[in-house]
């Protein structure tokens, strides 16, 4: 099951007894801080959870596996997530 932002807002509302507006503002603020930091080129480290990093990928040649037609994949920037050891241990 996929968790959506609204699920997180509802859970914060019930666990911290906040009203919906405050919980939504809290989640939005956290996500904005993470996005702004990544946009500025900074990594985001959340202890006990993991690290978000910016990775620059060079342009390369790709190929459709069915038709075998080659095409160029443009240079781009992606966000990667590396989970912490604590988080991995909790998952296993």
List the helices and strands and how they pair.
Layout: H1 5-16, H2 20-39, E1 44-46, E2 50-57, E3 60-63, E4 70-73, E5 76-83, H3 85-91
Antiparallel strand pairs: 1-2, 2-5, 3-4
Helix pairs in contact: 1-2
CATH C-level class of the largest domain: Few Secondary Structures
DSSP helix fraction: 40-55%
Number of domains: 2
Query: What is the first-to-last residue Cα distance?
Result: 18 Å
**Rg computed from alpha carbons, rounded to a whole number of angstroms:** 19 Å
Report strand %.
25-35%
Structural class designation: alpha+beta
Arrangement of strands in the largest sheet: 1-2-5
User: How many alpha or pi helices?
Assistant: 3
Corresponding CATH architecture of the largest domain? Irregular
* Low-confidence runs: none
Number of strands: 5
Give the overall average pLDDT: 94
Could you state the order of secondary-structure elements as H and E? HHEEEEEH
